[in-house]
């Protein structure tokens, strides 16, 4: 059990550029979640997958955001045409379907300049 | 809809003193409740969870929390603070059953002084 892994840990990008984050969940965890955390706030739910199916999306997930989990293993979160308001930490988490605990990764910091 | 309110964005205690971090929840169904800790520039680590079993829950690092339905509270305590406890603490609620999405509070930053 290597834990939830996220890459890159830090990303600085210019406004208008696209960025992509990758998340590798704990092996055999069927559910995968993306959260966003801004400074001084708690994490906010963005979306989650059960296997490869994206089952729920928050209204926070604008059309510039897209998440995929093509083979039900790792996931990517892409942000197109980044804006300064996108600066935040993007947290990935996973859980088994039958379990009741969500395990978080270390997060990916995004700074849009 | 579910929500969590954490009273006090900053709490300061002396080393060796009691730690009390407050959390009140709102849920239309029996909730599952969690406390997570976050150290600077890191992700969230689970401290403890309530999942409708024992109302007094013991977690890691000497922390515990008590679920009080009548008060809709799930306060986090530790008898004796240590310098290493300085961090941000988040209370979260889910709608129970198998793992589902969490709704977090705004967090409480714990400062521990000598």
What does this protein structure show overall?
The complex is a heterodimer of chains A (113) and B (114). By secondary structure, chain A is mostly beta strands. Chain A is built from no helices and eleven strands. Chain A starts with a strand and ends with a strand. The model of chain A has no long low-confidence stretch (mean pLDDT 93). Helices cover 0% and strands 54% of the residues of chain B. With 114 residues, chain B is an all-beta fold. The A-B interface holds A 4, 6, 31, 33, 40-45, 48, 56, 91, 95-107, 109 and B 32, 34, 36, 41-46, 49, 51, 90, 92, 94, 96-99, 101-107.
Question: Taking Cα atoms only, what radius of gyration of chain B do you get, to the nearest Å?
Answer: 13 Å
The largest inter-chain interface, given as chain pair and residues per side, is: A-B, 27 and 25 residues
Structural class of chain B: mainly beta
Shape of chain A: globular
User: Can you give the helix content of chain A as a percent range?
Assistant: under 10%
Helix-strand topology string of chain A: EEEEEEEEEEE
Instruction: Identify low-pLDDT runs of chain A.
Output: none
Measured on Cα atoms, how large is the radius of gyration of chain A? 13 Å
Distance between the termini of chain A: 36 Å
**Shape, principal axes of CA atoms of chain B:** globular
Along the chain, the helix and strand elements of chain B come as EEEEEEEEEEE
N-C termini distance of chain B: 41 Å
Mean pLDDT of chain A: 93
Strand content of chain B: over 45%
Overall pLDDT of chain B = 92
């Amino acid at each position: 059990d290597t834990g939830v892994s996220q890459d890159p840990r830090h990303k600085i990008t210019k406004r208008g550029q696209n960025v992509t984050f990758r998340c590798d969940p704990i092996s055999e965890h069927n559910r995968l979640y993306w959260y966003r955390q801004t400074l001084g706030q708690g994490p906010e739910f963005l979306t989650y997958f059960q296997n490869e199916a994206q089952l729920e999306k928050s209204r926070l997930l604008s059309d510039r955001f897209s998440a995929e989990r093509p083979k039900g293993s790792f996931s990517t979160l892409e942000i197109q045409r980044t804006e300064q308001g996108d600066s935040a930490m993007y947290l990935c988490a996973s859980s088994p379907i039958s379990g009741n605990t969500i395990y978080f990764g270390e997060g990916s910091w995004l700074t849009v300049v | 809809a579910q929500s969590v309110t954490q009273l006090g964005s900053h709490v300061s205690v002396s080393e060796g003193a009691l730690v009390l971090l407050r959390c009140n929840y709102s849920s239309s169904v029996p909730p599952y409740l969690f406390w997570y800790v976050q150290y600077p520039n890191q992700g969230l680590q689970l401290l403890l969870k309530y999942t409708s079993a024992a109302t007094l829950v013991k977690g890691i690092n000497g922390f515990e929390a008590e679920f009080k339905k009548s008060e809709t509270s799930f306060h986090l305590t530790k008898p004796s603070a240590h310098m290493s406890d300085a961090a941000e603490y988040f209370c979260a609620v889910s709608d129970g059953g198998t793992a589902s999405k969490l709704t977090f509070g705004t967090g409480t930053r714990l400062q521990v002084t000598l």
